Amino acid sequence: MEVTVLEATEDPEEVVCKAARNDYSEEFVGDQSFETTMETIEGDSLTEKKETLIGHLLDHGHFGPFEHPQITFAVEGVSRSCMAQITRHRHVSFDVQSMRYVSFDDVDPDDVREGELVVVPPSATDPDWVGRNQRTDAVDEDAVERREEIFRDTVADAVESYQELLDLGMPPEDARFVLPIGTEVNMVMSMNARMLMHVADMRAAADAQWEIRNMTEAMLDHAADWCPLTFDHYEREMKNRKNRLAP
Ligand SMILES: Cc1cc2nc3c(=O)[nH]c(=O)nc-3n(C[C@H](O)[C@H](O)[C@H](O)COP(=O)(O)OP(=O)(O)OC[C@H]3O[C@@H](n4cnc5c(N)ncnc54)[C@H](O)[C@@H]3O)c2cc1C
Q: Does the pLDDT at position 116 exceed 90?
């Protein structure tokens, strides 16, 4: 899996601060320098002032200003299962690679056995992996070996069957029904900073599945560069709060 940033609002935290100052200001923020807009906020430097205001907004649940900055991620090689989970978030915009344009023509079934084209969950190969609702009892090594064998053979068979159905003239949009839910897909998704915090609340949490959690952690790493003050405050003060239903 790879998560990269395609595009993001420039000076996102300046936009957040201007929007928030607009709410309580007699003056029109559109006509002012940023320094003037932030004049009455506590802090010795502009960065300190931004930190004060952003912390205050987040602590008081004033989340609207964080809806202005937008970020667009390109994600390579997640499973269709992960894609189904993330696309439940209704305030995120998506483009998802169509399976009709994914050719398995040149795919060697042995590559599929190696984990190409289909995401192999760690639990298929790692004897120490413990699932979300599993007990931590030691697992027999032979069982793990057999688990891996079944997993890899089943996906390789499915890909071979898909190719055979295409060769027999079945339309790709119907033949794909036999492909596993672990089949890799690329996505582009855009969201605002508030939504990114909400997605992180739900998907970087311990009870989220490992794959969407890894993807969300990668998005948060980018967010730390993009909106450093906001996501630093989020990580320190908000990530582990009890009521995670907002932002
Ligand atoms: C660990 C985990 C397990 C899950 N298991 C399942 C499962 O088994 N089956 C399943 O179907 N889903 C499951 N989900 C998905 C979950 O139920 C949500 O659909 C998903 O996380 C989207 O988040 P959201 O509801 O906050 O909505 P989002 O679309 O992210 O919207 C953000 C916020 O906007 C508000 N909002 C958006 N739309 C509405 C609306 N129509 N009405 C009122 N408020 C709205 C809500 O405050 C919402 O929290 C699971 C999620 C997690 C994290």
A: no
